[in-house]
Write a structure and sequence with these properties.
Layout (H helix, E strand, L loop, with lengths): L28 E2 L4 E3 L2 E4 L3 E3 L4 E4 L4 E4 L17 E4 L2 E5 L6 E5 L9 E5 L2 E5 L1 E4 L3 E6 L2 E5 L2 E2 L4 E6 L4 E5 L2 E2 L4 E6 L3 E5 L2 E2 L5 E6 L18 E5 L2 E2 L3 E4 L2 E4 L2 E4 L4 E4 L4 E4 L13 E4 L2 E5 L6 E5 L9 E7 L6 E4 L1 E4 L1 E8 L2 E5 L2 E3 L3 E6 L2 E5 L2 E3 L3 E6 L2 E5 L2 E3 L3 E6 L2 E5 L2 E3 L4 E6 L2 E5 L2 E3 L3 E6 L3 E5 L2 E3 L4 E14 L2 E3 L4 E13 L2 E3 L4 E8 L2 E3 L2 E3 L4 E5 L5 E2 L10 H4 E2 L10 E2 L9 E3 L4 E2 L3 E3 L2 E4 L3 E3 L4 E4 L4 E4 L5 E3 L2 E5 L6 E5 L8 E7 L5 E3 L1 E4 L1 E8 L3 E4 ...
Parallel strand pairs: 1-4, 2-5, 3-6, 4-7, 5-8, 6-9, 7-10, 8-11, 9-12, 10-13, 11-14, 12-15, 13-16, 14-17, 15-18, 16-19, 17-20, 18-21, 19-22, 23-26, 24-27, 25-28, 26-29, 27-30, 28-31, 29-32, 30-33, 31-34, 32-35, 33-36, 34-37, 35-38, 36-39, 37-40, 38-41, 39-42, 40-43, 41-44, 42-45, 43-46, ...
Length: about 850
């Protein structure tokens, strides 16, 4: 049975409110009836105002909240700090002469969580909130803040989510670290309000890119109920198939096994005996559970209620089942308090969907294998402690809290941790290997605290709304080979950290590549470029060693903020700066989010740019491909170099044709390639059904420079030389103009349907076989007027119907009598 949580003692009595006299403390837990606070109220632990309940705070009330950071596990709470969470309604009735005060115990800023309006509603009048991590947080709820003050908090007001409606009237948000943040489409209006004098930032607005992915499809057909259970014990081996309804707690004792067949639907009715809004029915496995669905016939666990909500039922609880592994595979679990909850057990969860729950997975003192799952749309995705965990190949997306691991031996590899409302992944007191993950579009990406051994290698930490990677109170930590880019404020934050930070790319972060409060580690061998304010900003007084980095072509003194800018700060030593960028390997199989590559990027295996994503390549960048590697673009590629800063696509190994594969664009409309060099490829560019512009580029020493099908394609002011085939067209629609196509075996090969080509004002002389060769299946004429073919008869440089009847003519008259003024292409 789940542990029954404490509840508040306030209750509605005879239709009247029970009012706690001062100085009686408020008790922790979930308020089960409308409640009034007045006088002096001490909040020692978390308080939740659930849906349907109103908490009223009378004028003149002083609420003091205890400062505590716990390892609490109840999913209804959203912070490790003491919080007041509103899912129902909060009314604060302060007046000018008797304001209401909410403050933390003592003077510590950030000692309590603050007031969290979580899908609820709050009206705060003449209210003062101080000492909190965030004075007021609004998550997809409504807020009216009138004539109030939020000060001496870490954040004043944070509004998050497209359903937020927040009106701030006649108020003051000042003296915090950060003032007013509006995230992910929150609508905040201010009138007669001052947001100023906050220590680090007054206002900030950002939204994640993209949206939730499809979370799997529930069964198409509903079978009739085959079995119904109340509070029962299943001894021996029990087989469930079809549709099962659980109206109680079903227990599988030690030595027994429950097997659930593919396509089964298990529904739980809601029973709430203590009035806290959380259902109590569920499964308790003390023996073994085998729930093995298939991709075509998943097993579904869900609410039986007509209107389904998170917390309608308790959990699949697995307790003291540490022998044979419990298996949950191809399952879908919805509407639970804790979808999967286990202690002292051995559990594998594979290829399953956990969505619409208070918490997706919660465990402790267990051996856990979480592989290939989608954990999405829960209040909290994963929370685990004191366990050994494999967390691999999962999608952790769109939860308010992503993953939280405490005192675990954690291997996290190949996950997509995206679009979570707070931390994507939080690691505390762990031994952790975090490798080759995408951490993108969360409010905070990856937070590592109180950890004394671990490695964070080859991850892409990008587009997080505030901070990409935060490292606090850590030692013996390696941060290497990561792409830390395009985060809203800082790429990396260091506080009381000793870490070796090497081989990373810090680029395009909104303010700082690295923000440092205090660090005894070393920052070396990294690339910095395109960060908004500084590559490194040292706020603390201790020296930071940052030798041998590449500073993106900037003067290090200009992009480092330290003692030279403010004498109370420490110094960033930056001797031996690199004259050229270090090679940084792209760590993931795909680019699924908007990103820019800078410096030298090595692609070690075939990589892709997903539909909806844009990959930018900054001027001056070199992209090196290992043998067999290439880039398949189904989103958009913007490789726009300049005359002074060419982009180079080249081989990471042998310098010979076909040393790497190709840049393939499929339906990659809007892509642009300018001032680029393609060399040593099988095909430099291979384009299908893409509206593509290629200008001022060089294709040299490839098997083929460029091939395309359909289009429209425009190729101009470029050079194709030293290739077996310069350009190949297949059923193409293209304008090929003002290029130099020389020194190839075949300049342009028209494989089939060349009637859509316009080839003009090019230099087509000097190719060893033909300037243009028409293929055996081309039965259309090719428009190639006004080109230079070299001295002599142009027909000698052409293979067409004159050589092989029936394959179409190259119409080359009139032709130029001297070289055209064609573009020379990019310089290698």
């Amino acid at each position: 049975m789940r542990i029954i949580r404490t509840v508040a003692l306030w209750a509605a009595m005879g239709g009247a409110f029970l009012v706690l006299p001062a100085p009686r403390p408020a008790l922790a837990g979930v308020l089960t009836a409308d409640t009034v606070w007045q006088g002096r109220v001490a909040v020692g632990e978390d308080v939740v105002v659930p849906a349907g309940v109103t908490l009223t705070v009378r004028a003149g009330t002083v609420v003091t909240v205890s400062a505590a950071e716990s390892t609490k596990t109840d999913p209804e709470y959203l912070s490790p700090l003491t919080e007041i969470t509103v899912r129902g309604r909060l009314v604060v009735e302060g007046t000018a002469v008797a304001p209401v005060l909410f403050s933390g115990e003592g003077t510590k800023t950030g000692g309590w969580a603050g007031i969290i309006v979580d899908h609820g509603a709050a009206t705060l009048s003449e209210c003062r909130v101080s000492g909190a991590e965030t004075g007021v947080t609004v998550i997809d709820g409504t807020l009216r803040l009138q004539r109030s003050a939020l000060r001496d908090n870490r954040y004043g007001l944070v509004a998050q989510g497209g359903r937020v409606e927040a009106a701030v009237e006649g108020s003051r948000i000042a003296g915090n670290d950060y003032g007013l943040f509006a995230l992910n489409g929150a609508r905040v209006t201010t009138s007669g309000t001052t947001v100023a004098g906050n220590r680090k930032k007054d206002t900030f607005s950002a939204s994640m890119k993209g949206g939730r992915e499809e979370q799997g499809v529930p069964p198409a057909a509903e079978s009739p109920v085959g079995r119904r259970y109340r509070d029962e014990v299943l001894r021996g081996e029990t087989l469930w198939r079809g549709r099962v309804v659980v109206d109680g707690v079903v227990r599988v004792p030690e030595g027994s096994r429950l097997v659930i067949m593919p396509g089964a639907i298990v529904e739980f009715t809601k029973k709430d005996t203590n009035g806290d809004g959380i259902g109590e029915n569920g499964l308790l496995i003390q023996g073994r559970l085998v729930a093995k669905g298939t991709a075509a016939q998943p097993i579904v666990f869900r609410s039986a209620e007509a209107v389904k909500s998170p917390g309608d039922w308790d959990a699949i609880n697995i307790m003291n089942s540490a022998g044979a592994q419990n298996l949950i595979e191809h399952c879908r679990v919805e509407h639970a308090y804790r979808a999967l909850h286990f202690h002292f057990s051995n559990v594998a969860i594979h290829d399953s969907v956990l969505t619409g729950n208070y918490r997706g997975v919660q465990f402790q003192e267990s051996v856990v294998d979480l592989t290939g799952n989608t954990i999405s749309g829960n209040r909290s995705g994963v929370q685990g402690r004191d366990a050994t965990v494999i967390f691999a190949g999962n999608l952790l997306e769109g939860n308010y809290l992503g993953g939280n691991f405490f005192r675990t031996q954690l291997t996290a590899r190949g996950n997509r941790i995206v679009g979570n409302g707070r931390e994507g992944l939080r690691i505390r007191e762990c031994t952790a290997s975090v490798r080759e993950n995408l951490v993108d579009g969360n409010r905070f990406g990856l937070m590592v605290a109180d950890t004394y051994f671990g490695e964070l290698d080859r991850n892409c930490i990008s587009n997080n709304l505030e901070i990409g990677l935060s490292v606090k109170n850590c030692d013996n930590l390696e941060v290497a080979g990561n792409i830390i880019a395009a985060n809203g404020i800082n790429g990396l934050n260091l506080q009381d950290a000793r870490a070796l930070i090497s081989g990373n790319l810090f680029s395009d972060n909104g303010e700082r590549g690295i923000g440092v409060q205090s660090s005894g580690g070393t920052v070396t061998g990294n690339n910095f470029g395109g960060n908004g304010l500084y590559a490194i900003d040292l706020e603390g007084k201790k020296e930071l060693a940052a030798p041998g980095n590449w500073w993106g072509g900037d003067d290090p003194d200009r992009v480092i903020c330290d003692r030279r800018d403010d004498p109370v700060r420490g110094e960033v030593t930056h001797d031996r700066p690199a004259g050229t960028p270090f090679a940084v390997a792209w760590p993931l199989p795909s680019v699924t989010t908007d990103l820019t590559w800078r410096g030298v990027i090595t692609v070690e295996r075939p990589a892709a740019v997903s539909v909806g994503a844009t990959l930018g390549i900054a001027p001056g960048t070199t992209v090196r491909f290992a043998r067999g590697a290439g880039l398949a673009v189904k989103g958009k590629l913007l490789a726009k170099g300049t005359g002074e800063a060419t982009i180079v696509f080249t081989s990471a190994g042998a310098k010979e044709p076909s040393a790497w594969d190709e840049v393939l664009l499929e339906y990659a409309t809007g892509s642009e390639i300018a001032h680029c060099v393609f060399e040593y490829a099988t095909w430099g560019i291979h384009s299908h059904f893409t509206d593509l512009l290629v200008t001022d580029s060089l294709f040299s020493r490839n098997y083929g420079g460029m091939r395309f099908r359909s289009g429209p394609v425009r190729i101009g002011h470029s050079t194709f030389t030293g290739n077996t085939i310069g350009i190949r067209a297949y059923i193409g629609n293209a304008v090929i103009a003002e290029n130099t196509i020389t020194g190839n075996e075949t300049g342009i090969f028209v494989r089939e349907k060349g009637g859509g080509l316009t080839i003009s004002r090019n230099n087509l002389a000097g190719n060893s076989s033909y300037g243009i060769r028409v293929g055996d299946f081309n039965n259309e004429d090719v428009d190639a007027r006004d080109n230079w073919w070299g001295p002599g008869d142009p027909a000698a440089a052409i293979y067409d119907a004159r050589n092989e009847p029936g394959i179409g003519f190259v119409r080359y008259e009139p032709h130029l009598t001297g070289p055209a003024g064609a573009g020379g292409g990019a310089k290698p």
